[in-house]
């Protein structure tokens, strides 16, 4: 008869650390993030969803919203995202965003100006104005403002 013995201590220490995976976030202009993360929450076309390590493989369409990432140190980082795709593989997630910006790089003045421009276009009733494009610009500007304001609140 074999006696049960607890697993070595070293196993328990590793088990207490949450599993991580590699995240790469890209836009057409630059690489926004590259590193190991514990989790992320993204704005999908069907609603917000989360991704942890060992998530089932999938591809999801992203929409305008806030993307949050918990890095391997446990720090939470926020990004304003406007469209794109997210691909999940066993130990890697790749985000190809149409437009994305880290919360700490959002310029509030420029975002307010973009909001005002979009609102003017929508109010103008000009038949040459592409309403869908103006509405999308307004959603992006409001998203950037909301994320930047949340960042300011967290600092104070």
Can you walk me through this structure?
There is one protein chain. The chain contains 3 helices and 7 strands, in the order αβββββββαα. The chain is an alpha+beta fold and 156 residues long. The protein folds into 2 domains: 91 residues, Sandwich (ATP Synthase, domain 1); 50 residues, ATP synthase delta/epsilon subunit, C-terminal domain (Single alpha-helices involved in coiled-coils or other helix-helix interfaces). A hairpin with a 4-residue loop joins strand 1 and strand 2. The longest helix has 25 residues. It is globular, with a radius of gyration of 20 Å.
Topology overview:
Blueprint: H1 9-16, E1 21-26, E2 31-44, E3 47-52, E4 58-62, E5 65-71, E6 76-89, E7 92-102, H2 108-124, H3 131-155
Helix pairs in contact: 2-3
With strands numbered from the N-terminus, the spatial order across the biggest sheet is: 1-2-5-6-7
Count the strands? 7
CATH class of the largest domain: Mainly Beta
Helix amount? 25-40%
**What is the 3D form?**
globular
Fourth-level CATH superfamily of the largest domain: F0F1 ATP synthase delta/epsilon subunit, N-terminal
β-strand amount: 35-45%
Q: Structural class, judged by helices and strands?
A: alpha+beta
Distance between the termini: 62 Å
CATH architecture of the largest domain: Sandwich
Order of helices and strands: HEEEEEEEHH
Low-pLDDT segments? 9-13
Count of alpha/pi helices: 3
Mean pLDDT: 87
**Largest β sheet strand count, sense and barrel closure:** 5 strands, mixed, barrel
Radius of gyration: 20 Å
CATH-defined topology of the largest domain: ATP Synthase, domain 1
Number of domains: 2
